[in-house]
Amino acid sequence: MSDFLAIKPVLVLGSAIGEVDLGQQRQIGGSAFNVARALSRLQVPVVNGMPVGNGEWGMMIEAAMNALGLPVLLRHGQKDNGHRLTQLEPSGKRTLVKVPGCETQWNKAQLAMLPMTPETLIYIHGDELTGESGEALRDWLTRLPFDQWRLIDPGPRVGLLDADFFAMLSDSDTVLTLNRSETATLCGEGEAVTAAQRFAAAHNITLICRLEAEGAWLCDGRNPPLNLAEYRVPVVDTLGAGDAHCAGLLAGISAGWPLPQAVNLANRVAACVVASPGAAGAPGWQQLQQRFPGN
Ligand SMILES: Nc1ncnc2c1ncn2[C@@H]1O[C@H](COP(=O)(O)OP(=O)(O)OP(=O)(O)O)[C@@H](O)[C@H]1O
Ligand SMILES: [Mg+2]
């Protein structure tokens, strides 16, 4: 791990939003922002594909991006960023109410101005892809060169993405990352790894199934599914665990690591976030090495 050097830039597309946790300070969140922050901590070059609005949240978001060294590339002149209200339950899960903002508005012109090379890795969360507001993004994502590497975290709204969308991603360099229930929604009921492997083979893309204590499974539809064990830690707060997992994976791929090693890194980064309050506990390299020495 000491020879880690991230090279390929990651275009982080999606939302930065306000987070209001009852009784706590206002923070900046959103899947894309969580991923971008975690990548910055791991010194991975990030291209900022997160729209920034014209209001108070937009100002806070821009300040948070500047603090991470991420200049704003996408601005919205008419709308502020959205926010969500959350409440932490004793289980470590959260309940929430969402107020949408400019992060739900996408168009072709905006996407076309994002700097990209064939090497650029792309990350996006499914919350931005669904419905009418996700149409421009779906279009853009499915029309990229087939060998442009992309990571899609379809998230809890995976059921709202239709079969055509996934059919259009067939044979491309796409990785889908899913938890257990998302795997069942997308790939069908039954044994999760078998269903995921079937889906991967049918579409000729790669799936990562995150099955809690059973670890993560890499299903590419060709080789036998590969298990990467979880790094079990006491749960403090699972907020942003999925996002941290994505960031770890992207960091490994940015450094040119093979996918299994990148998933292993994802498991470590996610474990660090689960073991700390909020989504902001993404580790740097030193912290990772201290927590998981010998990896
Ligand atoms: N108790 C735990 N100990 C260690 N790692 C954990 C634990 N819980 C979760 N993780 C890590 O976090 C990753 C992501 O968690 P999970 O799949 O539950 O996210 P999720 O359901 O997508 O949630 P969200 O998207 O809301 O963050 C898991 O794959 C695993 O690596
Ligand atoms: Mg998730």
From TrEMBL:
Full protein name: Ribokinase
Gene source species: Serratia inhibens
Gene3D superfamilies for this protein: 3.40.1190.20
Annotated Carbohydrate kinase PfkB domain residues: 26-280
Molecular function in Gene Ontology: kinase activity
Any one annotated GO CC term: cytosol
Family matches, as Pfam families: PfkB (PF00294)
The entry's keywords: Kinase, Transferase
Superkingdom of the organism of origin: Bacteria
